[in-house]
Amino acid sequence: ACWIPHTINMFCSLNDTFHIVMLMEEEEASKVLDSLENEDIKAQRDQVLSYVGKDAQEQHIRNYSKILVGAPYLRKLAHGNLKQQAELHTILAEMQVIMGQARSDDASYLKNCIAQYAAPDPSDKELEPPIYTDNKSHTLLGVNHPQLTGMLCPIKPAKVYHEDPKKYNGVIRMHSTAWPAFIYEGTPPGKDFNLDNVQERFLKGYYLTCGI
């Protein structure tokens, strides 16, 4: 399971991915079946999928396909009887724990270097106020630091946050399904985000282009 956050998706939720893809496969199968489908089952499936955007569905399919390349037996369990499906849920839960440990181990190696590369553009200017590697306090880490907050801020409200950080500090909700501002190009990151064209400047943030 360690290879999943390293090569497929760092924050992949295995249960969500398998559940969504299975529902999508059921939906496709229902279109070619001659027999009538149970309306209650169809309604439940449609309701779940209605909360998952097309982009997210495509991402789940990509993750699912890549995971099965490395662990093809999981597909057999996913399409098996109740006992096999229960075994699948147990395996996925264990894999999810291992994935979390892999992320934690990777992050621990970066801890002492964060202050050096976490600025919006480290080649131009360091963080203000600076974070020192020997600092034991968390008062300037994560969302407690004004510049880091701007990069971690969800992309949609990022523009208004940059206009008045003090006003919106502690007001904007952050959740795992929203892209952070640093994914997008801009100075500061996400400043020029276009709500009418969310793909514009997407995946062109400083860190991504440097990593590529």
What does the model show?
This protein has 212 residues and is mainly α. It is 56% helix and 0% strand. Helix 2 (14-32) packs across helix 3 and helix 2 packs across helix 4 (54-70).
Q: Report the major sheet.
A: none
Number of strand segments:
0
User: Structural class, judged by helices and strands?
Assistant: mainly alpha
Radius of gyration, whole Å: 21 Å
Series of H and E elements: HHHHHHHHHHH
Count every helix, treating DSSP H or I runs of 4 or more residues as helices.
Answer: 11
What is the terminal-to-terminal distance?
A: 24 Å
Strand content: under 5%
The helical percent reads 55-70%
What's the average pLDDT?
Answer: 84
Low-confidence stretches: none
Shape: globular
Write the layout of secondary structure elements.
Elements: H1 3-7, H2 14-32, H3 39-50, H4 54-70, H5 73-78, H6 82-110, H7 114-117, H8 146-152, H9 155-163, H10 165-168, H11 206-211
